[in-house]
Amino acid sequence: MQLVHTPAELRAALGSERPTQTAETLGLVPTMGHLHDGHAHLIRRARAENDRVVLSLFVNPLQFGPAEDFDAYPRDLPGDAAFAERAGVDVLFAPATDQMYPPGFATRVNVAGVSEGYDGASRPGHFAGVATVVLKLLNLVQPARAYFGEKDWQQLMVVRRMVRDLDLPLEIVGVPTVRSALPGEEGLALSSRNSYFTPPQRARAAVLARALGSAQQRYAAGERRPGELLAAARAVLASEPELQLDYLGLVDGDMRDIKQLDNGGVSTPHRSDTHLLDTARLLVAARLFGVRLIDNLPLTVPGPVPAAVNHAENVQ
Ligand code: AMP
Q1: In this structure, which residue's CA is closest to atom 18 in ligand 1?
Q2: Which of 25, 131, 210, 257 is 20–30 Å from 121 (CA)?
Q3: pLDDT higher than 60, residue 303
Q4: What is the pLDDT of residue 277?
Q5: Residue 264 backbone class (left: φ over 0; alpha: ψ -120 to 50; beta: rest)
Q6: Local structure of 4: helix, strand or coil
Q7: CA distance 192 to 12
Q8: Whole-prediction pTM value?
Q9: Is 270 one of the catalytic residues?
Q10: Whose CA is nearest to atom 11 of ligand 1?
Q11: pLDDT for residue 274
C-alpha cells in the first residue's frame, strides 16, 4: 500500500498519464477517517468491483459549522493507515487542509433542493462543503465508481444529484448501513462519533434505530398515515430522557416530505406509489450526551417481514 499526502503524489501514485482507454478501474471511498467496520464494508465492496481502491481520509473543514466538532473530531492516521492496509486499500490519500484548500480557494458547489431540508437546514453550508470536497476528490482520482454509505442518506442523495447534474462519468454506489451487533447496543449505526460515548451511552444511543424500526413495523402492520408512523417513532424516542430531537421525517427520493402514502391504506398502491415506496426513507437526527447523531431506515423492510412483527401488529 502507498500512503500519499498531496494531489501531486496522488497523481504520481495513480500514474500521471493513466489512459482512460485501459481496462483498469478505480474505486474511490471518501472518508473522514477514524475507520470502523462501516468503512470496511465500503472498501470491501470497492475491492470487489474495481481493480484498485483509493481511500481518501480528510476531515473536511468546509462541512463543519463554527460551533461543530471539527477540532475534536477523532483523528488517528497511523491507526487508519494500518486499518486501510488490512482492508486491502491500494492508495490512501490523506492530504493536509492547505493541499485541498490553498490560499485563495473560493469555490463552493451548491446542490439546491435535496440539500435544503433536514441536515441542510440544521447545518447551514454543510452540504455545499460536502459537494465541494467530493467533486474535488472525484476530479483528483477519476474513479469508475465511488462508494458512499446509506448511513448519511441525505449526503448520498446530494452526491447522486450532483453527479447526474454535472454529467460526471462515474457510478455512485450506495452501501447499506452497518450496525452494531454488540449486546445492549444492537442496531446502533456504526459511526466515528460513537467514540465520544461510553459503552452504556452507546447502548442508549441505539434508541434512534429502535425508533425508526418501530415506524417500519407499524408500516408493515398496515398503517399508512405518515403522521402515525412518525408518532410511533417519536414515542420510542421519548423513552430516552437525555435525547434532544432535531428532526424526524419521512421523505421521498428528492428529500421531500411524504404527506400521503396511499388512500388511507385501503387502496392497492398505484404505480407512482410503488416508486414512492422504493425510495421512502425514515430519517432522524438527535443530540444525546452532547453528541449529534443521525440515522435512517427504508420505510419498507427489504425481504420478508419477520412473522412475529406481522402477528403482533395485526391482531389488534
Ligand atoms: P465518514 O468518515 O463518517 O465521513 O464516512 C465515510 C463514508 O462511510 C460515508 O459515505 C459514510 O456514509 C460511510 N459510513 C459511515 N458509517 C457507516 C456505516 N455504519 N455503515 C455504512 N457506511 C458508513
Answers
A1: 38
A2: 210
A3: no
A4: 81
A5: left
A6: strand
A7: 30
A8: 0.90
A9: no
A10: 149
A11: 66
